[in-house]
Amino acid sequence: MVNPRCGNPDRVNGTTHMNSDKSPTDHTVANFSFFQGKPRWPSSKSKLKYAFLPENQLTDSVKVAFKRAFDKWSKVIPLTFKKMDSYRSVDIRIRFFVRDHGNGNPFDELMKILVHVFAPPTGFLHLDGEENWVVYDEFLKEGMVDLESVVVHEIGYLLGLDHSSEKEAIMFLTLEDGTRKVELSSDDSEGVQMLYGSNPNYNGSSTVYTPSRE
Ligand SMILES: [Zn+2]
Ligand SMILES: [Zn+2]
After folding, report:
1. Are strands 47-52 and 80-83 parallel, antiparallel or unpaired?
2. What is the Å distance from ligand 1's center to 211 Cα?
3. Measured in angstroms, how far is the CA atom of residue 102 from the centroid of ligand 2?
4. Does the keyword Hydrolase belong to this entry (predicted)?
């Protein structure tokens, strides 16, 4: 399947996204945008399954960073994400690769290209295994990339959002290295809710929703 994302790697350090070949989409009153044709996961799916490539042997703390990132989005839309152990029959496949990985889009050395991500319903997320990824609680400084910050942004693509011109938005096009930015802005929430509707538990503020213990 031909997809617009795998030629458009994400970048940090102020280099912009390679988006110039794509016509601007559906800009509305807000600053978020969608892919052309507004692809989204079918409404028959209320749960998206994801899995990590078992060969990557990721640590639990890395997996938890992904879970936290998915939770940010499922808090505002009526979609949940479930981690599966097997790579079979999942919606979202997450892999770390180094350099060439057989699709004509090799990863590079440090920085520049960090990820390849695909719009729905493809669900591929490739991460450059050579980056200085750090997970929450680790000491973050210049030259390091906060994994969760990047993953929150990439999940936006996996759901069908493209970049936002709103600086506070998770979907803003750049992330400074050595910084952490993991909270959705109202611009992100409004954008993704236009695709999927609102989570009935979403109260419109950035306060953390605490599920009841029942
Ligand atoms: Zn981006
Ligand atoms: Zn790739």
Report:
1. parallel
2. 30
3. 8
4. yes
Write down the pTM of the prediction.
Answer: 0.83
Q: What does residue 153 show for φ and ψ, rounded to 5 degrees?
A: -65, -45
Active site residue 55: no
Which residues of the chain carry a pLDDT beneath 70? Answer: 1-30, 137-138, 205-214
Strand-strand pairing, 33-34 and 80-83 = unpaired
User: Tokens 């044709």 — which residue?
Assistant: 37
Integer CA distances (angstroms), 97 to 32, 53, 72, 162, 210, in order: 29, 10, 25, 23, 35
Domains belonging to the chain, first-starting first, are 33-37+44-194 (3.40.390.10)
Which of the residues 131, 154, 166, 190 is marked catalytic?
154
Where helices occur in 20-118 by DSSP H, the ranges are 60-74
